[in-house]
Amino acid sequence: MWFRNLQAYRITGGNITLNSLEEALSQRALQPCMQMEMQSRGWVVPREEKESFVHAYGQQWLVALGVEKKLLPAGVINQHAKSRLVQIEQMQGYKPGKKQVRDIKEATIIELLPRAFTQRHKTYAWIDGINNRVVIDTASPNKADEFVEVLLKSVNDLALEPLDTQISPASAMTRWLSGDDLPSIFTIDRDCELQGMSDEKATVKYTRHVLEAEETTRHIRAGKRVIKLAMTWNSKVSFVLQDNLQLRRITPLDILKESTESDEELFASDFAIMTGELSQLITDVIDALGGEDHG
User: Fold this and answer.
1) How many angstroms separate the CA atoms of 273 and 183, rounded?
2) How much is the average pLDDT of 149-158?
3) What was the pLDDT predicted at 205?
């Protein structure tokens, strides 16, 4: 159980305990979509063989938001609606107007919804009760927003703010590739992306490429800034730092992955190791960017 992408938030209000969190999430458990619903959102157990809505290791808590959506492709809706519109045109002798077309489409959706397939997905998050952070495992801003929205509705008095730093990631990454000293606990890997600041946003990407200072500095002098940079932390975890402070493509290196444990033991030990390592990684990234900006 390793998160692959991190979107971190600071807990700025509320007093969460393990028992209160378990109770709050159980009150908003995921329910199947009703016949006429397009989607349903609610909490699911992080491990299907367990009944708890929170997997706990000390003050580190794993939770999972489930979303069930009806699959109703626009092409299917349009195909059924078109057949109806042809029939109506033949009956009334002229083409339906805009309002009539809209009403037919809405009626078609209502007719098809009960027969639509459903799809579920989970978004995991880890609540760090020691550092007062909520860390969501997603690269999608929309899924992060959705998770935060449901969490705030579920847990009374909880307040969150996106994690922010004194120095912007783009400024720091650009300086590091320009020759400024990188904190010794980090090393720069072989992927990066630079983007121009003009309206055209000209972009240069390096993939599995040794980043030569002379070459990257030339792009920086031409007005580009670094928006993504692959790095390794403490020889343990590789990741890509983005200009919005997301950490993506998180990969624990072999030293952290060797294990002969059972599935259940592996899940528990992975979560314990992951939260210990990634909480320190997040702290070190924040320190490298001048500390938190509490705004």
Assistant:
1) 23
2) 94
3) 83
For the residues 167-187, what does the mean pLDDT come to? 91
Q: How buried is residue 114: exposed, middle or buried, by Cβ count under 10 Å (0-12/13-18/19+)? A: exposed
Q: List the structure tokens of 47.
A: 């491990």
Contact residues for 182 (Cβ-Cβ < 8 A; gap 6+) = 176, 188, 288
